[in-house]
Amino acid sequence: MSTPATALLAEVRKPAILIVDDAAEHLGVLRSILLQQGYQTFVATSGERALEIAQRIQPDLVLLDVVMAGMDGLETCRRMKAHPATARIPVIFMSARGETEDVVTGFDLGAADYIRKPLRMEEVCARVRAQLRLRSNSETQKAQADRLRMIVNSMDQGLLIVERSGRIQYANPACDRYLGFAPDALVGRSLCDLLDGCTLRGGECMGVLELGGNGTREVMIRHRDGELHAMDLTMTPMHADDGLFVALLHDITHHKRSEDALQRAALLDPLTKIANRRRFDAFLEQEWQRALRTGQPLSLIVLDVDHFKLYNDALGHAAGDACLRTVAQTLQGHAARPTDLAARYGGEEFVLLFPETPADGAARLAELVRAAVEDLQLPNPHSPTAPWLTVSVGVATIVPGPLDGSAQLFECADRAMYAAKAGGRNRVEIQGAAPDVAQGSEPGFACLGSAPGAQSNSSHAAEICHCT
Ligand SMILES: Nc1nc2c(ncn2[C@@H]2O[C@H](COP(=O)(O)OP(=O)(O)OP(=O)(O)O)[C@@H](O)[C@H]2O)c(=O)[nH]1
Known about the structure:
Rossmann fold, Beta-Lactamase, 7-stranded mixed sheet, 22% strand, binds guanosine-5'-triphosphate, CheY-like_superfamily, diguanylate cyclase activity, phosphoprotein, PAS-assoc_C
């Protein structure tokens, strides 16, 4: 059952038709027929009045007589099409004049249809229905296009329409913002120029071709100021063969920066701020592979603070922490080359990795490190072996062969460090296994004689020993 409200709504939705004719009898006939068809009708007997009503009520259709006194139908139509408020309203001309020229002029002015007089009412009704259907379709399309435009304009993601050649046909405001361009300034530019490392081949942008339809990829895109930004780029072909692609851009620079910071933090020891064990393990593996390729020797120092439990017991855990930080900085100072790495391996144990360093050089470095810690003269009052904080140091050097593993290098240096502990602490012990490869020119572990210049000048019993 229809309520007053729904009846009112139905009334509101009735298409409104403006009938313009300076002959009152024509107006009356047309009006009553269109009313019977269920339309709302408005009438005007002059062009001026028609323009006034059209602007006020915005009808869905105008039936317009061509020949009228004063402003004729052609001029009325021209003015209607020139006014933004009435430009989209379809106009059907009615005229007894059927000359081709009139018909053409009418269509050129933007008329939707042309009906000859005398009017046959069935034909009029059919043409009115057809125009109202078209109008309704085009209004729906316009509404959809407006909605789509609003969505694209308010998107946070950048959206581009790109040709196979890389030429940008459209960029939404987010895209302009991402890349620092003024509105529309991206149109006509090439995506190739913006994508870092992208090339043009045979007039086609390799970035577009490689990325098209391949899901999301992380790319570096050049901002207008020249700076490269990390972005996720998703490229999708618009249709199978019209050569257009929709590119979606999502700026992940901030995300990347915090990810990089997190990654860096994950590789640092929180107490001493030098590399942690995870970083060391990865670095050892990388340098091991490099040494395998280059045939260069790789040296490792494993170092453990002596009687550190007694240090903590005597001075407190906070002082112990501060002490570990000082030792770490001292070691860091001895990892001089960009390829050297000092790391805290765990607790009071540290490691130093020296790529392209033969056994004699590593032994000298180990002794320098040992002496540097002793020279800090950090009192360790309860230590039975020295009044100061000291370290025991193990050294191993290898020219890796295909059958060796990096764990072996660590085990050898670690064993040497335990030998230094067993030998009285505050010493450097060198792990050796194969006297014939002493200087690291052939695969295998190095074994040294006394390393020149490696003796401690400390007043304490520091020595370089050899462990086989
Ligand atoms: N303050 C502090 N102490 C630590 C930390 N990590 C490990 N330790 C302490 O280091 C001490 C190591 O003791 P042990 O393994 O017995 O070795 P040590 O006393 O150094 O004796 P040797 O190695 O035989 O010379 C333990 O008491 C740990 O609690 C740390 O981050 N901060």
